[in-house]
Amino acid sequence: MTLVYVDNVHKAFGDLKVLKGINLSVAQGEVVAIIGRSGSGKSTLLRCLNQLEKHDSGQITIADKQLDAASMSPKELSENVGMVFQSFNLFPHKTVGENVCLAPLVVRGEEKAEVEKVAREVLEKVGLSDKYGAYPAQLSGGQQQRVAIARALAMRPKVMLCDEVTSALDPELVGEVLRVLEALAAEGMTLILVTHEMSFARDVADRVVFMHQGRIHEEGAPSELFSNPQTPELKQFISAVL
Amino acid sequence: MGPTLDFLTLLPYVSELLKGFTTTVILTVVTTLTGLSLAVAVAYLRVNAQPWVRWGLGGYVEVTRNTPFIVQLFFIFFGLPGLGIKIDAITAAFIAMTLNLAAYSAEILRAGISATAKGQLEAGRALGMTTLQSYRHVVLVPAFARVYPALISQSIIVMLGSAVVSQISVFDLTYAANFIQSRNFRSFEVYLLITLVYLLLAFGMRRSFMLVGKRVFAYQQGEQR
Amino acid sequence: MIEFTFWDILRNLLLATRWTIVLSLIAFVGGATVGLLLTFMRLSSNRWLQRLTSLYVDLFQGTPLLMQLFLIFFGAAAMGHPISAWLAASIALTLFTSAFLCDIWRGCLEAVAKGQWHASRVLGMNYFQTMRHVILPQALRLSIPPTVGFSVQVIKGTALASIIGFVELTKAGTMLNNATFEPFTIFALVALLYFALCYPLSCYARYLEKKLYDAGLR
Ligand SMILES: Nc1ncnc2c1ncn2[C@@H]1O[C@H](COP(=O)(O)OP(=O)(O)OP(=O)(O)O)[C@@H](O)[C@H]1O
Ligand SMILES: [Mg+2]
Known about the structure:
The complex is a heterotrimer of chains A (242), B (225) and C (218). By secondary structure, chain A is an alpha/beta fold. Chain A has a single domain (2-91, 159-241), classed as Rossmann fold (3-Layer(aba) Sandwich). Chain A has nine helices and ten strands. The two termini of chain A are 33 Å apart. By secondary structure, chain B is mainly alpha-helical. Chain B is 76% helix and 0% strand. The N and C termini of chain B lie far apart (69 Å). Chain C has helices at residues 6-43, 47-61, 65-78, 85-111, 114-122, 127-157, 169-180, 183-214. In chain C, helix 1 runs parallel beside helix 8 (183-214) and helix 3 crosses helix 4. With 218 residues, chain C is an all-alpha fold. Classes of the chains: A alpha/beta (242), B mainly alpha (225), C mainly alpha (218). Chains in contact: A-B, B-C. The B-C interface holds B 1-3, 62-63, 65-72, 74-75, 78-83, 156, 160-164, 167, 174, 177, 181, 186-188, 191-192, 194-195, 198-199, 202-203 and C 59, 62-68, 70-71, 74-75, 77-80, 152, 156-157, 159-160, 162-163, 170, 173-174, 177, 182-188, 190-191, 194-195, 198-199, 202. Chain C: Residues 17-205 form the ABC transmembrane type-1 domain. Chain C: Keywords: Amino-acid transport, Cell membrane, Membrane, Transmembrane, Transmembrane helix, Transport. Chain C: Its main location: membrane.
């Protein structure tokens, strides 16, 4: 079943055309890794998927509902699409527990007791149940990013977007975050992630999408794509990063 | 009159001093609260409201920052009754101080918000919060924390500037000083003492602000890992 | 009673504005001179000189300008040497300005990165060479926007001279008000004139600040 469907999406910043007709469909439970050079439009595509950027033309459908202001409210959007940022963007003045509970409380208006239960569950899932009362400043980068993942999970989204979620981390902290994502994938969560971790893309992704100059240049199963790139651009990219 | 100092001549005026002190403290506490609250609203609206509201508020901020407080006070106290709006001196002082603090603090806060907002707003939006919800729950406190020292200084500047409200006969510390020196003719002693009181007030204000800040912004200290 | 037309009022206010400008200039030039001296005292290696200057700065920043004015004006009289409102205002505003400028400039000197000192030391420059060729030029660039910005506070500060009877813009306003009973018009005009003096300086300071920022220095 197709969960995310992107049809001929364009996006420009002023004169700069960043997305030049993106077509992509992601099935329920699929893990899609987006790779590509800096500036190729990976983040922009991801941000269009949860409307942090409004696309100029084309259609995006998530769970059979069209993604635009008229047909999907921010609340509804957030229940479909979760996002984890490169720079964590945790709320510094709120404890880990409060970070996780805030949106279910104020956006969905759920019961406090129920929300706290969910919060403990998702924190358990990312291996941080003992940090419920800690402030972000008291956590390592890897722990902060795991809280951010838990925070997104607490809204029970259908698909999670991850934009280079390990790029701001010290090398020794990358593993713990990737393992959490791997576990999520194994549970059947639909993931779309922009990543520079090629080995992670190869091991965990069902499909790898190579973006180049605002277009999807090549895509396919990771084993296929990495071992047998078709286009010179991808060949060059792979030889540069591996 | 010789150049000797004689503070004993101030003793009979303790009740005037207390009255002036109380007025200055109350004016300061109240206007700090109202001024900073108003500043939050102004800072928010200057970013998020309709263009004409932003424009109007920009005008208010610039006029306030580029004219002397005493002129603002005179305009409110003497000028507004000319339009049929009658207010007493203490109300005029309260309004002038609030508007003055709010204009400066709104600018300070706006800087704090623009330095904080992007990541926090995006995280809030990705979680389905409206702009107002994001401001309320996740932007305001970190923005406040970021510019807190500047807000302390500004509140103190407004407290010190409030000496001018004596000129519309509000019985504040300065008014008390003027009153006493007109009776005992020891102007230097009186003003020296009152200056010292202001200095202590400024010091006390900074300390209390910092104590409050330490509690409210405690989340910034990293310990446990 | 003499009748005042709108133009009479405006003309009188404009004439008084001259004194606001003159007083501002005196305060600013005087304050900058004293402030520069204080900044160097602050930078000296003598502990007591450092303490003395920060005490000076704290005292002037922690007390009302009005009290400083009163202390000088009435203090001089009480000591048996009465001085004019004009002189008292000049002295008070000069001292007030110097304290704030000293604080601003010290901040700018400290804002020049520590690495610059180290780099100069490694290149074999001594304290004065480093100061003259490396630190001061950078600090100077940093200091111009806030200094221009503070000139607005000086102009606004001169309004307090009206309280000890010096006839500048604000005093002229209150005097005209007593003669005409048109407070709304008069104080609106007074505010407008201050705004005309201050706003361009504020804008210029902001422009300079932005230029520094764009140059990556802030
Ligand atoms: N808000 C914006 N305003 C203007 N230009 C933008 C904006 N966001 C992105 N761009 C530009 O769009 C282009 C694509 O940016 P994008 O962030 O999507 O690239 P990316 O593939 O994610 O690169 P990276 O690997 O460096 O994160 C870049 O040239 C960037 O400068
Ligand atoms: Mg990116």
